[in-house]
C-alpha cells in the first residue's frame, strides 16, 4: 500500500534539495556563530546571509527577523513581550485562533492585568470587521489585535492589509500568525503595516524546529528565553545554522515557484471538490473552504453525511487505507474535546458528523485524489 499524504497543513515533507543543503552545512559549517574565531565567523556570515534573504521576500529589514524554534515560540515571544514590555492592556482576538495564540492570551489574562475581547466570527469562519472596528473604537487602553492570516483548520483568509490599516487608524498594534500563509502567499511588509508575525519552516517544505518572528523596527521586545545575547538580545541560545539554512532554502524555492505551484495545487483542490460533490451526495464544506475567493488553495475541510455513532472511527478507517489526513489541526489530534474552530462555525447537527481536513502540496497527484474520493465514497456507503 502506497501511503497518500493529504495532511500538509500539519506539516510538509522536506524538499530533497533542502535536505541535501542542510546535510552539507552540518558537515562543513559547524562553528558557533557567537565565536570570534574564523570558523565561528563563517557560521555568523552564513546566518546573516540567510536572515537578509528571508527578510527580502517580505521587503523587510534583516534586523526585523528573529529566528525561533517555530511558529509557537514566535507567537509566544510577541504576545508575552507585548504585555510585559510594551504595556499592552487589552488584547482583541478570535475564538478560532491556533492554540499557540489562544492558550497564550488565556495564560496572560490569568497572570497579568490584561483584558481580552473576542471579535465575532461569522459562519464562514471570517471575522466580523464591523465588530472589530467597534471593539477598537471602544478601547481606551493600549491594544494589540492578534488574528491569524489563514485559519489552519478551515482555510478562511483574513484580509490582513485591511485589518492592519484598521489597527493603525485606532493606534493599536497588530500581530498575525501567518504560519499557514508564509511560503504560499506574498506578503509585502513595506506596504502592509503589520507590526508582528510568526512563521514556521515545516509548513513550506523546510525542516521542523525552526521559524521566525517578524518584529517591526521600533518595538523593543524582551526575550522569553533568557541566556546569551543571540538574536539581538531577543532570543537566547546558539542558533541552529543548518535549520536556518534549510528554512532559507525552502522559502527561496517556495517563492520562486509560487505561481506554478499555486496553480497546480489549486487545480487539485478544484478537482477534489468537484469529485466529492459528484460522488457523495449530502457532503458539506466547512467554513468557506469550497469558496476559492475566501479560502486558501491549500486545504479543504469536509463534513460527511455519516451518522453520529459511525463518526468516531472514520479517520482511523482512512488511516488503515493508507490515507493521512486530519480531523482538525494536528495540535488537537489527541484531544477528545473536538475542534474549537468547528465548534464556532458548525451547527449542532453537523458537529455530530465526521469532519475531515484534507490539505495539499505540489507532491500530490490527481490519481491520489481519485483514490481518496473512491475510498471516502465506499466508507460513507458502508456507514449508511
Could you characterize the architecture of this molecule?
The chain has 384 residues and is α/β, with parallel strands linked by helices. It folds into two domains: 4-12 and 258-383, Aspartate Aminotransferase, domain 1; 16-256, Aspartate Aminotransferase, domain 2 (3-Layer(aba) Sandwich), CATH 3.40.640. The chain has helices at residues 16-28, 38-56, 71-84, 99-111, 129-138, 160-169, 241-256, 258-279, 314-320, 340-345, 348-351, 366-383, and strands at 4-5, 65-68, 90-93, 115-118, 143-146, 173-177, 196-200, 211-215, 284-285, 299-303, 323-324, 355-359. Helix 8 (258-279) packs parallel to helix 12. The longest helix has 22 residues, at 258-279. The radius of gyration is 21 Å and the shape is globular. Mean pLDDT is 95; it is low at 329-334.
SSE order and pairing:
Blueprint: E1 4-5, H1 16-28, H2 38-56, E2 65-68, H3 71-84, E3 90-93, H4 99-111, E4 115-118, H5 129-138, E5 143-146, H6 160-169, E6 173-177, E7 196-200, E8 211-215, H7 241-256, H8 258-279, E9 284-285, E10 299-303, H9 314-320, E11 323-324, H10 340-345, H11 348-351, E12 355-359, H12 366-383
Parallel strand pairs: 1-11, 3-4, 3-5, 5-6, 6-7
Antiparallel strand pairs: 2-8, 7-8, 9-10, 10-12
CATH architecture of the largest domain: 3-Layer(aba) Sandwich
Element pattern in H and E: EHHEHEHEHEHEEEHHEEHEHHEH
Low-confidence stretches: 329-334
Across the major sheet, the strand order is 2-8-7-6-5-3-4
Helix-and-strand structural type: alpha/beta
> What is the CATH topology classification name of the largest domain?
Aspartate Aminotransferase, domain 2
Radius of gyration: 21 Å
Oligomeric composition of the shown chains: single chain
Amino acid at each position: 500500500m502506497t501511503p497518500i499524504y493529504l495532511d500538509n497543513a500539519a506539516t510538509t515533507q522536506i524538499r530533497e534539495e533542502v535536505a541535501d543543503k542542510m546535510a552539507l552545512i552540518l558537515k562543513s559549517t559547524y562553528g558557533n556563530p557567537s565565536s570570534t574565531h574564523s570558523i565561528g565567523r563563517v557560521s555568523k556570515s552564513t546566518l546573516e546571509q540567510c536572515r537578509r534573504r528571508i527578510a527580502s521576500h517580505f521587503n523587510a529589514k534583516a534586523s526585523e527577523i528573529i529566528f525561533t524554534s517555530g511558529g509557537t515560540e514566535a507567537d509566544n515571544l510577541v504576545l508575552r513581550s507585548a504585555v510585559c514590555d510594551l504595556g499592552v492592556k487589552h488584547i482583541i482576538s478570535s475564538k478560532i485562533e491556533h492554540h499557540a495564540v489562544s492558550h497564550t492570551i488565556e495564560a496572560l489574562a490569568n497572570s497579568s492585568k490584561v483584558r481580552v475581547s473576542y471579535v465575532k466570527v461569522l459562519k464562514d469562519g471570517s471575522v466580523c470587521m464591523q465588530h472589530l472596528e467597534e471593539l477598537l473604537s471602544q478601547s481606551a487602553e493600549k491594544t494589540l489585535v492578534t488574528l491569524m492570516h489563514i485559519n489552519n483548520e478551515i482555510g478562511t483568509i483574513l484580509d490582513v492589509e485591511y485589518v492592519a490599516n484598521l489597527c493603525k487608524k485606532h493606534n493599536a498594534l497588530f500581530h498575525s500568525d501567518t504560519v499557514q500563509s508564509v511560503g504560499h502567499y506574498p506578503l509585502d511588509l513595506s506596504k502592509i503595516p503589520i507590526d508582528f508575525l510568526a512563521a514556521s519552516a515545516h509548513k513550506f517544505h523546510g525542516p521542523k524546529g525552526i521559524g521566525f518572528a517578524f518584529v517591526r523596527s521600533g518595538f523593543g521586545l524582551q526575550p522569553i528565553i533568557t541566556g546569551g545575547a543571540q538574536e539581538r538580545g531577543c532570543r537566547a541560545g546558539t542558533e541552529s545554522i543548518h535549520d536556518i539554512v534549510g528554512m532559507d532554502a525552502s522559502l527561496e524555492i517556495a517563492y520562486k515557484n509560487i505561481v506554478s505551484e499555486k496553480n497546480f495545487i489549486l487545480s487539485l483542490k478544484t478537482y477534489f471538490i468537484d469529485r466529492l460533490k459528484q460522488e457523495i451526495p449530502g457532503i458539506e464544506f466547512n467554513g468557506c473552504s469550497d469558496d476559492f475567493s475566501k479560502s486558501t488553495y491549500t486545504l479543504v475541510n469536509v463534513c460527511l453525511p455519516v451518522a453520529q455513532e459511525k463518526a468516531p472511527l472514520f479517520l482511523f478507517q482512512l488511516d488503515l487505507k493508507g490515507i493521512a489526513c486530519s480531523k482538525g489541526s494536528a495540535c488537537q489530534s489527541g484531544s477528545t474535546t473536538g475542534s474549537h474552530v468547528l465548534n464556532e462555525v458548525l451547527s449542532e447537527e453537523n458537529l455530530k458528523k465526521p469532519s475531515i481536513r484534507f490539505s495539499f502540496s505540489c507532491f500530490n497527484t490527481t490519481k491520489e485524489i481519485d483514490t481518496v474520493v473512491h475510498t471516502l465514497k465506499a466508507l460513507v456507503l458502508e456507514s449508511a
